[in-house]
Amino acid sequence: MESLVARATEYRIQVTELASGARVVDCGIKAEGGLRAGVMLARVCLADLAEVSVVPGAAGELACPLVQVFTDHPVAACMASQYAGWQISVDLLPGPDGKERNYFAMGSGPMRAAAGREELFDKIGYRESSPVAVGVLETRKLPNEEVVRYICERAKVPPSGLSLLVAPTASQAGGVQIVARSVETALHKLHELGFDISRIVSAHGTAPLPPVAKDDLAAIGRTNDAVLYGGRVTLWVRGDDASMEAIGPKVPSSASPDHGVPFAKIFARAGGDFYKIDPHLFSPAEVTFCNPDSGSNFKFGRVEPDVLVRSFRL
């Protein structure tokens, strides 16, 4: 985090300290941001417990960069930190024109464990207390003092101990940090299916990085498709083989009846309501289980390059 701030010009980001002492790092709203800023955003989302890089790859027959993630601390990195489980919604005071405003962002990063407000933390048994907190906000608006106060009250930190990194979906940095969620979506899907994710000791994932879309709505479609139809995840899971063989077919996105068309069409069909979409869709295209105890390997799902090409308009 500090190295990112210290090299703001190099990363094409803008760092602002609010009157309260909170620090806001703009990675793609007013600042240009970029791929390296996106990699750092993803690392912060993962509490710096994972390696993130942009590597060569392909979508179908066309060359396409991939966002690669690997970690030896998958539950702490992905579930306790990276998962965007904190919906930050703040009713702001009316502006100079008298109109009411509100602020909304999807919150990720270590600040979630400091707040510990989600039921998920009861299930994974992980919370933390710290005088400082760092978070990533996926939004088009920079946070103000009211938003800072809202987060600080819940994360139990003073404003001077809070750092917020911000990027919209339709930006280079925002795209990288979202596509870096291939492993996280696999763990979340397994958790929702009732699998004991504490058995997962290491993880690796890749997903294609789409072109930056013209607006955030279009970017939501492309970044979701990157994982749903192009995400490849390998999980090292200890214990019995039978449980992996039994649950494996339910894990990839192909297990959902919504699978097979670009996410933008699915989203439109659901009236723009995420909660009307089958939750089992949100997982990588392909998942491989490797059992270091038995030496067995099990692969489930498939990538769909044709859907990616349509989505990315390559």
Topology of this structure?
Layout: H1 2-6, H2 8-11, E1 14-17, E2 23-26, H3 35-45, E3 51-55, E4 58-59, E5 62-63, E6 66-71, H4 74-82, E7 86-92, E8 101-108, H5 111-115, H6 119-124, E9 133-138, H7 145-155, E10 162-167, H8 172-179, H9 182-192, E11 200-208, H10 216-230, E12 232-237, H11 241-247, H12 263-269, E13 286-290, E14 297-301, H13 305-312
Parallel strand pairs: 2-10, 9-10, 12-13
Antiparallel strand pairs: 1-2, 3-6, 4-5, 6-11, 7-8, 8-9, 11-12, 13-14
Helix pairs in contact: 3-8, 4-9, 10-12, 10-13
Largest sheet: 6 strands, mixed
Helix and strand element order: HHEEHEEEEHEEHHEHEHHEHEHHEEH
Number of strands: 14
How many DSSP H or I helices? 13
Walkthrough of the structure:
With 314 residues, this protein is α+β, with helices and mostly antiparallel strands. The protein has a domain of 141 residues: Methenyltetrahydromethanopterin Cyclohydrolase, Chain A, domain 2 (2-Layer Sandwich), CATH 3.30.1030.10. Helices cover 34% and strands 24% of the residues. It has a six-stranded mixed beta sheet. Strands 3-6-11-12-13-14 form a six-stranded mixed beta sheet. A two-stranded antiparallel ribbon has the order 4-5. α7 links the parallel β9 and β10. α10 packs across α12. The longest helix is centred in the C-terminal third of the chain and has 15 residues. The protein is globular and about 60 Å long. It starts with a helix and ends with a helix. The model has no long low-confidence stretch (mean pLDDT 94).
Concise account of the structure shown:
The protein is α+β, with helices and mostly antiparallel strands.
